[in-house]
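Hi R.,

Here's the chain you asked about this morning:
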Amino acid sequence: MRAAVVGHVEWVEFARVGRVPVAGEITQVSETWAEAAGGGGVASVQLAQLTGDCTLFTALGDDELGAQAREQLGGLGVRVESARRNERQRRGFTFVDAEGERTITIIGEKHLPRREDPLPWESLAEMDAVYFVSGDAATLRAARGARVLVATARVLPTLAEGAVHLDALVRSGSDRSERYGPGDLDPEPALVMVTAGSKGGAWTASDGRSGSYDPAPLPGPLEDAYGAGDSFAAGLTYALAKGEAVENAVAFAARCASAALARRGAHGIR
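And the predicted structure, written out as tokens:
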């Protein structure tokens, strides 16, 4: 299977604390680390692990952190096709507390891949599966050349402008920025997934079928929640491209999300 992700990358520094500090408080961290993360970074590594062949279409800053992000993702099995932005790499700072919850602060504007960037966009038509995290409407239309296209509801205005048929739309039930209702997209997605963290989630198909799912058991001790949502979406993309029935695809995606909860940060690098 050939897979691709279209989306942004953030160089994220993580800090593990007992709890997130309140205003004016000083907090001691127990460990820190940094990874090439963000939606594009997380999903591309997850799909590379599942398929052995994933290309990330992205844009990176023209600085040391942008170069480090490219190198780290390449070392994790991702083929990185990146445009260069004449600015600093977008960064993030994430507190991870004792309960495994992540609190994220973003620094800098999102580096979105654009269809005008000199990247091999034509190869998207050769892909079995593409997960769309971010980009312009023209990149979305190029991604529709893939056999299976899944997207996040975080970029609903871009999805509406692109006006392509999605095999699945994934949204968080608790994130107000990912609201979606019937008629928000034309054509409507074949499948709409609503994730609810530890409560599992639900799905609705355009043919009228619907269902719910429970979270999968953790394969190890809880580390943190960073990247669980994008790991779920990447797993769903993979399973749908394999031809799995919706129920089986959702169960597989839930296992990918649980695996993310049991690894440190974005990729489990030690």
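Helices lie at 38-51, 64-75, 137-143, 156-162, 228-241, 246-261.

Let me know if you need anything else.
M.
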